[in-house]
Here is the input.
Amino acid sequence: MAAPAHHDEEARTSSTSRHPRNGLSTDEGVLGEGVPAESMPSPGKVLGLALGFVVVSLAVRVGVWMGLSSGAAWRFFREAVTAIVSLGITIALTVWVQRKRPALQHPDLTLRPPIGAASARVVLVGLAAGTLLFATVFALAWLLGEVRSTWHVADPSAAITTLLVTSVMLFLGATWEEYTFRGWAFSACVRRFGPHAVAVGLGTAFGLAHLVNDAPSVPAIVSVTLAGLLLGYAMLASRNILFPIGLHVGWNVTQFALTSSHLWVFHQAGAPTLPSQPPQLEESMAGIVITALGALAALVAFLARERRARTDREQEERALLPHR
Here is the structure.
């Protein structure tokens, strides 16, 4: 039996007012179209599921790495297998949990984008942004006298091959990190707890996860945590995981190209001022400042998109009101 027309109009009005088409509001009752708030798991359960997702993803990567031979001759093989297996399992876990817990997937955050020109453009914009950010870090560090580099390529063909192969590895690693920290767990928590709490919380977790690196300095952890905020708000502003993936890859590849010994002789100017040897620009004043500014820019972009979404919602609500 067909529902009365006024019920259809009421349903459309309720859907539009309770769930903005583009926004990420998590006010009471705005947890997804057709999903009543009471049908959502409790905050503790959502947090447990999200943390479980992140822990499993991290455990898989560490387990694969530890399970392979650690000999110098096998290092590339070890890194390649770890990158491929951990990424594959994390994506498979994402697909599985999306099917098992569809109510937790935020409808405005794209984790499985379609293959096509539109997706390619998102990746390219992210790559350009990441490249520009780290190039700015490098230029500012140079101007401040924190580092000096001299162009030196002993074997151009070998350098290019190394750069290309390393870029592929960095792409796999960055994609895994994004699906771990800005993927399903991020989406589920945004839907339950709101965007800002999740961007800060998982951004901090992203920084703490890098504590497993060899004796990281405090400035490095601060910088990586800021990078987590940058990537989190980049995900919120773009609504598409391909953008933070591109941003992450662009940063890492540019960092490798500018600071590895394959293309440059890279050193600190004067007395050492950076804790790590060889120096890591993330822990420089330039790295911290530019990363913080990037995070601020991503936050502003997110807030602007939220404001546009609310305006669109209000216009849609007014359009649905009966004309007198």
User: Anything to note?
Assistant: The chain has ten helices and two strands. The two ends are 30 Å apart (CA to CA). Residues 1-36 have pLDDT under 50 and may be disordered. Residues 40-314 form one domain.
